[in-house]
Amino acid sequence: MTTNKMRVGLVGSGYMGKAHAIAYRNAMAAFAISQEQLQCEMLADATPELAEIKAQELGFNRSTGDWKQLVSDPHIDVVDICAPNFLHKEIALAAIAAGKHVYSEKPLALNADDAKEMTEAAESAGVKTLVGFNYIKNPTVQFAKQLIERGDIGDVVHFRGVFNEDYLADANLPFSWRLQKQFAGTGALNDLASHLVQLATHLVAPICSLCADLKVVHKQRPCAQAEDGVGEVENDDQAHMMVRFTNGAQGTLEASRIAWGRKNGLSFEITGTKGSLVFDQETLSELALYINEGNPQTQGFKRILVGPEHPDYRAFCVSAGHGLGFNDMKAVEIRDLFQGIVNNTPLWPDFRAATQVNIILDHVVESVDKRAWVEVEQYDGERK
Amino acid sequence: MTTNKMRVGLVGSGYMGKAHAIAYRNAMAAFAISQEQLQCEMLADATPELAEIKAQELGFNRSTGDWKQLVSDPHIDVVDICAPNFLHKEIALAAIAAGKHVYSEKPLALNADDAKEMTEAAESAGVKTLVGFNYIKNPTVQFAKQLIERGDIGDVVHFRGVFNEDYLADANLPFSWRLQKQFAGTGALNDLASHLVQLATHLVAPICSLCADLKVVHKQRPCAQAEDGVGEVENDDQAHMMVRFTNGAQGTLEASRIAWGRKNGLSFEITGTKGSLVFDQETLSELALYINEGNPQTQGFKRILVGPEHPDYRAFCVSAGHGLGFNDMKAVEIRDLFQGIVNNTPLWPDFRAATQVNIILDHVVESVDKRAWVEVEQYDGERK
Amino acid sequence: MTTNKMRVGLVGSGYMGKAHAIAYRNAMAAFAISQEQLQCEMLADATPELAEIKAQELGFNRSTGDWKQLVSDPHIDVVDICAPNFLHKEIALAAIAAGKHVYSEKPLALNADDAKEMTEAAESAGVKTLVGFNYIKNPTVQFAKQLIERGDIGDVVHFRGVFNEDYLADANLPFSWRLQKQFAGTGALNDLASHLVQLATHLVAPICSLCADLKVVHKQRPCAQAEDGVGEVENDDQAHMMVRFTNGAQGTLEASRIAWGRKNGLSFEITGTKGSLVFDQETLSELALYINEGNPQTQGFKRILVGPEHPDYRAFCVSAGHGLGFNDMKAVEIRDLFQGIVNNTPLWPDFRAATQVNIILDHVVESVDKRAWVEVEQYDGERK
Amino acid sequence: MTTNKMRVGLVGSGYMGKAHAIAYRNAMAAFAISQEQLQCEMLADATPELAEIKAQELGFNRSTGDWKQLVSDPHIDVVDICAPNFLHKEIALAAIAAGKHVYSEKPLALNADDAKEMTEAAESAGVKTLVGFNYIKNPTVQFAKQLIERGDIGDVVHFRGVFNEDYLADANLPFSWRLQKQFAGTGALNDLASHLVQLATHLVAPICSLCADLKVVHKQRPCAQAEDGVGEVENDDQAHMMVRFTNGAQGTLEASRIAWGRKNGLSFEITGTKGSLVFDQETLSELALYINEGNPQTQGFKRILVGPEHPDYRAFCVSAGHGLGFNDMKAVEIRDLFQGIVNNTPLWPDFRAATQVNIILDHVVESVDKRAWVEVEQYDGERK
């Protein structure tokens, strides 16, 4: 069943909540979606007061201090979950139970079992789901996928992905919920490597086996209140994986949250039998492409600036090389969400695909425990 | 007199018109401006039908096929001119006569005399004006200005600016109004070098003398209709200037619209007595900075990724290095426009400042005719 | 016992042999070593005729078609082995037996057992040894080591090294000895990853455990003579390692000989508790350095161009940023060799250090067989 | 008349003298020139003692404290002038009078009149001449020339060259002969822009008219001996030129010796009707090339790493991307010198070509005086 509009309820207005709010506006103007068709209907936050202020600032019609009220509101079509990770499951299950479509930030859940429960609930209820692995929405990355799919670089034989940031590089940054397993799950693995896993799967093939290494480098951090002493850091600062894909390709994936100097340091290099491509999110509007053809004297990596010849760029600008930003990727994601819902077409990556990411993250922990390679369960491969 | 809202009438919904439309939405979400405070009220385009479609797509409440109707509408506070250059003057004068504030795309006019007439009309009427020299609104460029103003690179002794694109590099692209003096004025000079002149003035000091060179490289182009033969190109493909600034610094500015491979190739390097900075719009979210201090062994250009420590970035993202896009600069410009109007504070660059750019462009033509250096009239310096 | 001169006998005048010949000349002029002190005395190659031609071309006094004659010549102080890998052992053992110092290209041997035998022979005979892991001789890399040792980036917590080239990326390149275990040992692992292992050990700490993955991607290649059909490739095109260092740091090392577009793609990024540094051999005269200090607003990776403030650069040029080349690194290696021999001081990396590399490469194969982590024998740690 | 050997007498063993000494050795090994064929015969320096030490260090057979003795020595075929600029003329004329070939560092002379006198003396005497504009010997730049000549980028329509260094950026560096007209001639113009003029001429076409700007930024500098007070700087810190070439192309050339952060900052961008190329000496082994062909979606600047497919690289290394250094360019220059002399073939750039550079530098001063464009004398065009 198709509809002609999408009314959004946003849960959480922090970092990603604001990015979503910007993206709704941006998507409407860029993709010619009217305010009638896409309505920012309600915003939930921790208290009614905060929610009201934020709704005003971010352009939502109504607000509430209780996300349960939002989830059950009859004028909401999609629940957009930007709450902390450990709340994703409860909110999503409630939204599904209320028959709402769900758009959740990543990682979908703290572990694969929770993610499966969420996936099965959504599939049973027949609601649509989308998880915010936004990096694949970047026109540059869409173009990379296009190049791979049409065979420009031949058969993919290697993927190397790195996602390094330095948001916890300072050992004196205070202890917080992010460093505790019960609230955050794993560390750099969950926050950063999850994107790499999803990108690798999206661009190359399913991952079928892996071997991993995790390390907590800064084992204690001072509590925010000096009198509380120090907190014991429970999750990884650095995460490594060697992987094999179902198509036979090899890969290496690594992430760090303590890599000084890297701010949004997601990069990948994909090697095929005919060429290679290289991407770095810190220069998100360009792709380096090497193709083995023509005069060897003039072979080299081409620096391609994304432009109107590439997917979805033209909606933002008709001139090449003018540069898109981080928030523009989210606008593409919103456009996907909108089209999927109003046209009743599939969304990607949905809960099942995101569950596959959670499964792989769980296998990482298993591999670390065993100090050996492990085989990967193919949950997304069982998609009906 | 302050007000609490800004109602916008947009004239023209092509390239820049759409960029403005995106920017209004983007600015509202990023800078917490409510829909009550900033209203996209009316859109004018060539025909009522087109205007209606575009108003729908871009989120404007009403539409009209006659910009004169928009200009005189009582529910419009600001007229936003995204019409072709040769119409700027007529629309702006009409808007000013109707007591509207005016926000115009650059270049302000086809020549300095027209620009002066517009400036004087606006100043007499007491309306506010803003001209869309958007590159100075980029947080990275704002940061460059901050570095210069607080003396981090010492006294500026040199500015080199290049603005190269390749939108007319193909000699077989058809003849058009852009290539005729009566509609477009000069060529690369007007389109591209105007930005460099404004940037140089903004970042260094007023330009007091110059010597220039202009060249039409592709002298004829085929008409769009083959039976019309060829058109004679009347304006420059390449433009060069050597300049001197009032503070004694030297500069070189050059622009080309036929520079293969450059898409938004606006770059500058500013040298001071203590250091240097380098910017390239094709990587708009980074600045290279060299400071002569500390151990010579570890001196080098620093690649600084723009982040929340820098002006206006935090409104878009709380994490450094996540990258802003071209449209985000326009959102900052809209925020400036909004604040200037609701708080009744000065806007920059206004018509007078933009007229100074037009004056310099006219001196370029004069210098080319004389094959010699010329002194520059200081119109903006007479600001009251 | 010190001496005042070094007379060289070079075995092999192919790729690396010529590089050595250039380096002897280069080192003499750059480091003020006279022709009296450093004599290119004899060159051995496959036939007397070839040897004579090459000696003439490369500036050696005498020549021979029999390396055994060279090894036993009384006017030779150092035997320089640039013969194919599988001959290293026999030549080195003969040279040692004749009381000569030995300077060998890497990898030292095809496996750890051979390398140990060579090491023990040399140590018993009291001759000096040096192995051509030239990348650590680069002034830029020497500077990186200096930065690490003096604590500029704090304690090292991570090393990532990649060494990718594309010399076998074309699947139609003919079958050769390089692809057979008995002649070449492993593939990309031996050729390329061996450098990473040595660099990581040199810059960070000994490697104490590892887990690895190897893959032959192009399993068959056409024989050079079409009638011979295809050859079965026996060694790895791609090699991965996750490692742990004795200081607790983590690392990832990977190499490929089929990575389209990479020509001398040796790069590393080293993260410490206070900063990071990044090097790429394709731009061998620059180092990127990030230090967490000062105003966060002006933090960024510094691009440092190597110059006379850095180790050994001044011998080549007194101006910074003028760029050294690949052959200049070899000249530094020759200078080290000369000084070690005439002053009777230690050489680095010697056979024992190089044997540690061979041991690690053998552990890689062991890990692949076990599909698990393995502990690394510390042979170099037993150095007396 | 051909000969079979070249015996060199080097005058001056400072910065460039040592670079030449390294280059003689390097050229012999790289290009298979024997010690019999190329003899480093005599070195002259300021005193006999210094000359003897330097001859020993740099590998010259004999030495002298009097360059006149070297110039008249019967066992010298080529006089290599690495003495300060103001001595070039006297030494060259004496060498020519003695029937020697002359290889001089650039700039050839302090002014065009001197250069013409030197050229005419050499041409009358029938000796060969070569001037050390080494940047055109770089395999990367040779490749650029090849691309232009075979039409890969179409007709050249624009050249932009910048040569910035920071060797005098510190205003407290002491006063010296370099800052006085009688010893150094002009400043950044002579030292740096002379290379740009030669490169532009070499790569594009003769320069037929120009307009220039020169500025002394730091007008006084402290004398080395504090009691001597300050010295008045007489020559330019920054130099600008706009030029027109005989083929109709436009160009801009600029140089600075006070540009913080630039160490060997010679870069150029050449635009043609079909493509563009970009070079930066600080990464001297790569060229960026953009060609307008094929799918617009995959157009971009290619980063080409110089390798054995390109001119003269293979002599140094058989693998691509291994990087040449500054000194390697000089080795190519020496190879040219050697071949020209032993084969009696033309050398490039000779005194006449270098005189054309001096003529242009003189026109720069004329243009600055006139504050206008000037026509350029075509001296090299009168070559017989």
TrEMBL record, chains A, B, C, D:
InterPro entries in the record: Gfo/Idh/MocA-like_OxRdtase_N, Gfo/Idh/MocA_oxidrdct_glycsds, GFO_IDH_MocA-like_dom, NAD(P)-bd_dom_sf
SUPFAM superfamilies: Glyceraldehyde-3-phosphate dehydrogenase-like, C-terminal domain, NAD(P)-binding Rossmann-fold domains
Keyword Oxidoreductase in record: yes
Record flagged with keyword Nuclease: no
Annotated GFO/IDH/MocA-like oxidoreductase domain residues: 142-278
Keywords tagged on the record: Oxidoreductase
GO function term, MF aspect, one: nucleotide binding
Domain Gfo/Idh/MocA-like oxidoreductase N-terminal intervals: 6-133
Protein name: Myo-inositol 2-dehydrogenase
